[in-house]
Design a protein that fits this description.
The protein is of the alpha/beta class and about 300 residues long. The chain contains 14 helices and 9 strands. The radius of gyration is 24 Å and the shape is elongated.
Length: about 300
C-alpha cells in the first residue's frame, strides 16, 4: 500500500514539473491547485496562510493534486482547473468560453471606479456602462466598490454571457446584464451615462498570443479586435461611448501597449471627445485611452432667405 507524499513534498514536485513545462508562475500555481484540491478558497487560502498552516502540520498531499498539476503542465489555465479567477477582491466563476480577467485590467476598473465615486460625491448616484463585459469583472468591481452605482453590462457572445450571468446573479440589484452588440446596445440610455468602461477585443489578426493559455483557451472572439490593426471593434466601442455618454462623461477603454497613439486618434476622429489621454497600468505601460465627452454643440438655426432682398 503506497503512502501519499507530504503536502510539502508534493508542492515541491509540482512546482518543478510546472517550471519544466514553461509555466510562468510554477510555485504560485502549484499552491493554488493544492488549495483547491484541499477544498480551500484558492487565492484567499494562500494569502491568509491556510495552505502554509497545512504544510506545517504535516498534511498529506490531497487526492487529485497530481491530476491537476498534469493538466496545468499541459498549459490548461489554472483558472479553468479551479473554476475561479480573482479580480479586485472578487472571485469570479470562469471556464472555457469566457476571457479570463487579467491583473492589468484591474487598473482600468480603478480609473472607472475613481470617476464613479467622484460623480456619486457630486450627485449622489452614478450610471456606468461596461461594454464587452466578458465574465462581468469590471461591472461587478464597480458595483461592489461604488455605493450609489447602477451598472449596465453588455456581452454579445453566448458562452461569455452565460458566465457573466452566473457572476452578476448576486448583484442583480446593481448590475443589469444585457446580451447584445456593444456597439449598438442600450440606446435608451443615450446621452445619460456618466462612465463608459470597456476591455474590448483588440489583438490584431496576425498577432497570435505566445502563451498557450491564451492562444488555445481564451475565446478568439474576446481576443481579436478585427481590422488590420485590431481596432475595428474598439472603434465601435468609442462610437457607442460618444452616443451613450452625457457631456462631461468619461470613456475608459483598454488597448494594447502598442496601440496607444492609434486609440487616441480613433477617439479624436469622432469629434465627440476632449481631454483625450492615455493612462498606464500598474507596470507603467500605456494600456488605456481616457477621454471626456465634449459638450454637444447644437446645430445653428437655419435662416430663411430675405425674400424681398433675394428678388432684387
Amino acid at each position: 500500500m503506497s503512502v501519499a507524499p507530504s503536502l510539502r513534498q508534493a508542492l515541491r514536485e509540482a512546482a518543478a514539473a510546472l517550471a519544466a513545462a514553461g509555466v510562468r508562475s510554477p510555485t504560485v500555481d502549484a499552491e493554488l491547485l493544492a488549495a483547491f484540491a484541499l477544498g480551500q478558497e484558492t487565492e484567499r487560502a494562500v494569502s491568509r496562510g491556510e495552505l502554509q498552516a497545512a504544510i506545517v502540520l504535516g498534511a498529506a498531499a490531497p487526492a487529485g493534486l497530481a491530476d491537476l498539476v498534469a493538466a496545468r503542465a499541459r498549459r490548461v489555465p489554472v483558472q479553468h482547473l479551479t473554476g475561479v479567477a480573482p479580480f479586485r477582491g472578487l472571485e469570479l466563476v470562469v471556464g472555457p468560453g469566457v476571457f479570463i480577467p487579467r491583473p492589468e485590467t484591474e487598473q482600468v476598473a480603478q480609473v472607472a471606479i475613481d470617476e464613479a465615486r467622484a460623480v456619486v460625491a457630486d450627485r449622489g448616484h452614478v450610471l456606468v456602462v461596461d461594454l464587452c463585459t466578458g465574465s462581468g469583472a469590471i461591472a461587478l468591481a464597480v458595483a461592489q466598490e461604488v455605493a450609489g452605482a447602477t451598472v449596465h453590462a453588455v456581452e454579445l457572445d453566448a458562452e461569455a454571457y452565460r458566465w457573466a450571468a452566473r457572476n452578476v446573479a448576486t448583484a442583480a440589484d446593481r448590475v443589469v446584464l444585457a446580451r447584445g452588440d456593444a456597439r449598438t446596445a442600450l440606446t435608451a440610455l443615450d446621452g445619460m451615462v456618466d462612465v463608459v468602461v470597456s476591455n474590448p477585443p483588440y489583438v490584431p489578426p496576425g498577432a497570435v498570443p505566445v502563451d498557450p493559455e491564451v492562444a488555445e483557451h481564451d475565446p478568439a472572439v474576446a481576443l481579436y479586435g478585427l481590422g488590420p490593426d485590431g481596432l475595428e471593434v474598439p472603434r465601435g466601442i468609442i462610437a457607442a461611448a460618444a452616443r451613450l455618454l452625457r457631456p462631461g462623461g468619461l470613456l475608459v477603454m483598454e488597448h494594447a501597449e502598442v496601440q496607444a497613439a492609434a486609440a487616441q486618434d480613433a477617439v479624436r476622429r469622432t469629434g465627440a471627445f476632449e481631454r483625450i489621454g492615455t493612462a498606464e497600468d500598474l507596470a507603467r505601460r500605456p494600456r488605456m485611452v481616457v477621454a471626456r465627452r465634449a459638450p454637444v454643440v447644437a446645430d445653428p438655426p437655419t435662416t430663411q432667405p430675405d425674400v424681398e432682398h433675394s428678388r432684387s
